[in-house]
Specification:
With about 240 residues, the chain is an alpha/beta fold. It has a single domain, classed as Spore Coat Polysaccharide Biosynthesis Protein SpsA, Chain A, CATH 3.90.550. The chain has 6 helices and 13 strands. The strands form 4 sheets. The chain has a 7-stranded mixed beta sheet, with helices on both faces.
Length: about 240
């Protein structure tokens, strides 16, 4: 069952503390990597996917994000005077995200597509009868800028299992996903992480995942910036 997604949200409200001093004056989503901001790269992917209603949340240096986006049509800003974390941020923006499933994309990661764009692959894999969450995972072995223990294992049916303590998992969450508004029924109020809702969906058997088949980059620190730029430029034909 292919989902036709017209709404999307880009998470752009974070403080970018690990990217200081760059983020003292530039919000992390507006940091340029190989000549293009991370926020614009996310929006470019969503434009190719055919989304027409976009929400971008803001907090740190929100005026700069608003100014940067002023020339792009179809974008609603959801300002957070207090950071609401990932779950609270999406919950606050729900009135602008329609009644159907929607994309949510982190603005602090960069990805390039395989033969089929990752967002299209997610839409093709979506099954509204059995899913409330569909995550894009990426292999830890090929994730540039990541050195953690991973997040998930994945079985042959696309059902993930979280890494337990002292385990090392082969896949990490790539910061790209489809969510159903159903996920937010009885959600906490105020500030909370999407992980709270992921765990509920996992327990109910309504969280699925696919594995990214392109490249994936995390720009976490100023030192990582030139390394990621060199890799992207080498990949660009």
């Amino acid at each position: 069952m292919t989902a036709h997604l017209h709404h999307a949200m880009v998470l752009a409200a974070g403080l970018g503390l690990r990217m200081r001093p760059i983020t003292d004056h530039t919000p992390k989503p507006l940091v340029e990597v190989a000549g293009r901001t991370m926020l614009d790269r996310a929006l470019d992917h969503l434009a190719v996917a055919g989304t027409s209603h976009l929400v971008v949340n803001t907090h740190w240096l929100a005026d700069k994000v608003a100014s940067h986006l002023s020339g792009r049509p179809g974008i609603t800003l959801s300002h957070e005077s207090e950071l609401l974390e990932t779950g609270g941020g999406v919950a606050k923006a729900l009135p602008h995200l329609g009644t159907d499933p929607f994309y949510v994309v982190n603005s602090d990661i960069i990805w390039t597509d395989g033969a089929v764009p990752a967002l299209k692959r997610l839409a093709l894999a979506w099954d509204d009868d059995r899913m409330d969450v569909l995550l894009l995972l990426t292999p830890t072995a090929t994730a540039m800028g990541y050195d953690g223990p991973g997040d998930f294992f994945l079985d042959g049916h696309g059902l993930p299992r979280r890494r337990r303590d002292r385990e090392v998992a082969p896949l990490l969450f790539a910061g790209v996903q489809i969510l159903s508004p159903r996920l937010f029924q009885d959600a906490p109020s105020g500030k909370f992480s999407l992980n709270v809702l992921y765990d509920r969906a996992l327990e109910a058997g309504r969280l699925s995942a696919i594995v990214h088949d392109g490249r994936w980059y995390h720009v976490g620190t100023p030192d990582a910036l030139p390394q990621v730029e060199a890799a992207i430029e080498a990949e660009t034909p």
